[in-house]
Amino acid sequence: MALVLYDDGNHKCVAFTELVQGEGIQSNQFAIIDQGEGILLDPGGNLTYKHLIAELADYFLPSHTRYIFASHQDPDIIASVGGWLLITDAQVIIAEEWTRFLPHFCMRGATAGRLVAIPPRGMWLRLGGADLQIVPAHYLHTVGFFQIYDPISKILFSGDIGASLMDGHAAGLPVNDFDAHLHDSHMLAFHRRYMSNNKACRLWVEMVRQLDIEWIVPQHGGSFKGKPMVKRFLDWFETLECGTDLISPADFTPPPREVPSHD
Fold it and tell me: Which of 9, 48, 129, 198 has the fewest CB atoms within 10 Å, measured from its CB?
């Protein structure tokens, strides 16, 4: 299902929310279109590839895809990149750390001259007549993790920050009750497990508070719309204990050896 997040007649942001079928983890895919040029954000893997092509036809042609952005290297983010390189002339934008990993998803030579490495502090990107800001979110949850902030729509496409585990029909929709969402969608458990530590959380929050954000839209689950809800999320994330904050000797204690029975 496609959800139009923003449309002023020239600049458009679209989310695709129910393309994963079967056992794969639910994920949201995104497109930003300006003056007929498009960028795909975290287009996903083989579970989403053909469905996303069909959905995009209502917004722009694959031949008008100028960029494919990968927030990081996970299969649910960019495993379909080989297919997109075949049907478009797009450049693939990914962290410097992952440029040598990306060819493993493609035929030999497919990425030659097609990769743009994001430097550690991020960069600006021109799409049509718009400038998009690529901002760092290192170790949240992986080294070389980036997000896209769109100053026109004031949307931060936040990747795994803010992610939750929800049914497809609810994914992408704004969260109404933050406290209920925190537990009902396993957002708290997800962030405790997948985010690295509170230091990274605090540094990220300090950076994004300087942006004029109206909507935080993660790659999994629901979104956080409106300045009060954005502030509620940032206040929570800023104090989150996670990852190495919670680690203990028990996490490095192997289970007792059990010899399989051959009865």
Answer: 9
